[in-house]
């Protein structure tokens, strides 16, 4: 029996996977807007972890989040192990692999993107790093500075947010469309919104693999981090390992 704690941007996809899962899964979804405040989101996820741990009936607590602006860095496992995808954010999870993310976004990781979950659960049509009515990482640079020092923090930030990569990507609006939610025809609605905003529409085929395998218990070390009791999530911030488990 597993406990799934997930951002509700994945609610339809997660429910699709849970309906076919071999294990019994208890679900808990957190609001998409919580990403605007990383410490607040971290506290809410940790509270959900602690409550699930106290129930003392789960083999594992599954976290359907990426690093998410450092929101998952510092999360601690109690008596129950945690499992989460190795992903910077939901873009990798929606695409189904880090390799696909690097192919499509490696030159410009901050390219705006969206999905059915953003259109249904958010108050904006694009997931960006700055601007009004968007998910923001306002305190992430400060967190990097506190942990790694100002110079190293600036290097990490500029690596993840290149100003001139691929000639600049702010003109693009990328929609990640998964087969399990394609019947909603939200890609067409997104294209209309992109045109109104004067952006170049691009559709990418998504893949539910990382969501499905997390929920179905298929946790290979390449795609998933397992945090054992007494360990916490630590950020690596590269494009390969991304996160690791450390003793606390």
Question: What would you say this structure looks like, in words?
Answer:
By secondary structure, the chain is of the alpha/beta class. The protein has two domains: 2-90 and 208-247, Rossmann fold (3-Layer(aba) Sandwich), CATH 3.40.50; 96-205, no CATH class. Helices cover 35% and strands 20% of the residues. The protein is built from nine helices and ten strands. Strands 2-1-3-4-8 form a five-stranded mixed β-sheet, sandwiched between helices. It has a three-stranded parallel β-sheet with strand order 5-6-7. A two-stranded antiparallel sheet has the order 9-10.
Short summary:
With 248 residues, the chain is of the alpha/beta class. It is built from nine helices and ten strands.
Please give the structural blueprint.
Layout: E1 2-7, H1 11-19, E2 25-30, H2 38-55, E3 60-64, E4 81-85, H3 90-95, H4 98-105, E5 113-114, H5 116-121, H6 140-148, H7 150-160, E6 172-177, H8 186-196, E7 200-205, H9 209-216, E8 224-227, E9 231-235, E10 243-247
Parallel strand pairs: 1-2, 1-3, 3-4, 5-6, 6-7
Antiparallel strand pairs: 4-8, 9-10
Task: Output the radius of gyration.
Answer: 17 Å
Query: Can you tell me the residue ranges where pLDDT is under 50 for at least 5 consecutive residues?
Result: 129-139, 164-168
Which class best fits the helix and strand makeup? alpha/beta
CATH class of the largest domain: Alpha Beta
Strands side by side in the biggest sheet: 2-1-3-4-8
Count of the separate structural domains = 2
Looking at the structure, what is the overall shape? globular
Strand content: 15-25%
Strand segment tally: 10
Number of helical regions: 9
Main sheet specs = 5 strands, mixed
Q: Average pLDDT value?
A: 86
Question: Which bin fits the share of residues in helices?
Answer: 25-40%
């Amino acid at each position: 029996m597993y406990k799934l704690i997930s951002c509700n941007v994945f609610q339809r996809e997660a429910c699709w996977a849970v309906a076919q899962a071999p294990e019994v899964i208890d679900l808990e979804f957190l609001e998409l807007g919580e990403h605007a405040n990383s410490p607040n989101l971290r506290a809410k996820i940790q509270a959900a972890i602690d409550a699930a741990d106290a129930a003392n009936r789960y083999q594992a607590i599954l976290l359907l989040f990426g690093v998410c602006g450092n929101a998952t860095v510092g999360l601690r496992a109690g008596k129950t192990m945690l499992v989460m995808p190795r992903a910077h954010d939901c873009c990798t999870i929606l695409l189904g692999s880090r390799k696909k993310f690097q192919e499509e976004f490696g030159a410009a990781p901050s390219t705006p993107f969206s999905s059915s979950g953003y259109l249904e659960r958010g108050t904006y049509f694009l997931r960006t790093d700055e601007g009004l009515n968007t998910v923001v990482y306002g305190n992430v640079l400060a967190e990097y500075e506190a942990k790694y020092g100002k110079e190293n923090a600036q290097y990490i930030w500029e690596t993840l947010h290149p100003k001139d990569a691929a000639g600049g990507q702010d003109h693009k609006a990328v929609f990640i469309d998964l087969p399990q939610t394609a019947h909603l025809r939200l890609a067409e609605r997104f294209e209309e919104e992109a045109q109104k905003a004067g952006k170049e529409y691009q559709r990418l085929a998504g893949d539910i693999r990382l969501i499905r395998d997390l929920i179905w218990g298929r946790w290979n070390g390449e795609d998933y981090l397992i945090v054992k009791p007494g360990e916490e999530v630590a950020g690596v911030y590269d494009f390969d390992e991304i996160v690791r488990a450390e003793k606390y």
